[in-house]
Specification:
Layout (H helix, E strand, L loop, with lengths): L5 H11 L3 E3 L8 H10 L6 E3 L3 E9 L6 E6 L10 H9 L1 E2 L14 E7 L9 E5 L3 E6 L18 H9 L17 E4 H11 L3 E10 L5 E14 L4 H6 L3 E8 L2 E2 L3 E5 L7 E6 L5
Parallel strand pairs: 3-10
Antiparallel strand pairs: 1-11, 2-3, 4-14, 5-6, 6-12, 7-8, 8-9, 10-11, 11-15, 12-13, 12-14
Length: 281
């Protein structure tokens, strides 16, 4: 039976979620999404619903159990013609916990991680700010909790981390290298384009993956959301109240991607239509 209404979509999803589903497109790079389409009984991205129109199915790998919904991955605007994240790692990163331990991480492997909101500064002095045309990632060394213990245990305190990065100088040796990098930012027009191409009229489904004894992929579809039309005018408010966050997760030899994430309780404020597929269990 083809899916013709939101109610039918919900009913089908309730039979799909919370069960390990065998992959149906072995060897296909987009197998998670194609398997879901096969389970729903629809042709590739050919889902039409009343009041929603054409709906694109997108799958994302689940990233732990927290109250944040990952919207998409996007790297910030380049700094001095070079990608921003590697420069942040070099100027401000700290030793990765597995660096030089014989587990495949080089001795010089650094980490840079920060889940940053706009309603407060992190212990390392980071915050985000939305202006008329930009979303900026800001660093203020005066806001660092210098006496607090460093949660990564790489340094005794965040003050010791600050001392270290202040000693990482620019080429001329005059200033800390981080001063030439900030603010790191996104153009809001670019973010709007990503919202419109990735999340407008979208069924967004999160999944986990494992392999069976034969080495074939199994998929566990967890949370599902039906989204329609982003409200760009809500972004400043969601940033100001801490509901929309910027999440960096990078190390020297692998960038897990910079993510824009929203509190699940506030995601409905970001779209004209927001339907969570209730598991009904």
């Amino acid at each position: 039976m083809s899916v013709r209404t939101v109610e039918e979509l919900v009913a089908k999803m309730q039979k799909i979620v919370d069960i390990w589903q065998p992959g149906t497109r072995h060897g296909n790079q987009g197998e998670a999404g194609h398997t879901l389409e096969d389970l729903l009984g629809i042709k590739e991205n050919n889902l039409k619903l009343p009041d929603f129109g054409d709906v694109e199915i997108k799958t994302q790998k689940a990233e732990g159990k927290d109250n944040l919904l990952t919207l998409f991955h996007k790297e910030p605007t380049s700094v001095c013609g070079q990608a921003a994240v590697p420069q942040l790692l070099k100027a401000m990163g700290w030793k990765h916990q597995k660096a030089g331990t014989g587990t495949g991480y080089p001795h010089d492997e650094k980490s840079f991680r920060s889940t940053t909101s706009g309603n407060a500064y992190t212990p390392r002095g980071f915050t985000i700010q939305c202006t008329k045309d930009k979303l900026s990632f800001i660093f203020d060394p005066t806001k660092i909790a210098t006496k607090n213990a460093d949660e990564t245990r790489v340094y005794p305190t965040y003050g010791d981390w600050l001392e270290d990065i202040n000693n990482r100088k620019t080429v001329d040796g005059k200033n800390p290298d981080y001063q030439r990098i900030f603010p790191v930012y996104y153009n809001l027009g670019c973010l709007q384009e990503i919202f419109e191409t990735k999340l407008n009229h979208t069924l967004l489904v999160y999944y986990k993956k494992k392999k069976d004894k034969a080495g074939k992929n199994l998929y566990w579809y967890d949370e599902a959301y039906l989204l329609k039309t982003v409200r760009m005018n809500q972004i400043p408010q969601l940033i100001d109240d801490g509901s929309l966050v910027l999440d960096f997760d990078a190390r020297t030899h692998h960038n897990h991607g910079t993510k824009l994430r929203v509190k699940k309780s506030k995601a409905k404020d970001l779209f004209t239509e927001f339907e969570m597929m209730d598991k009904g269990k």
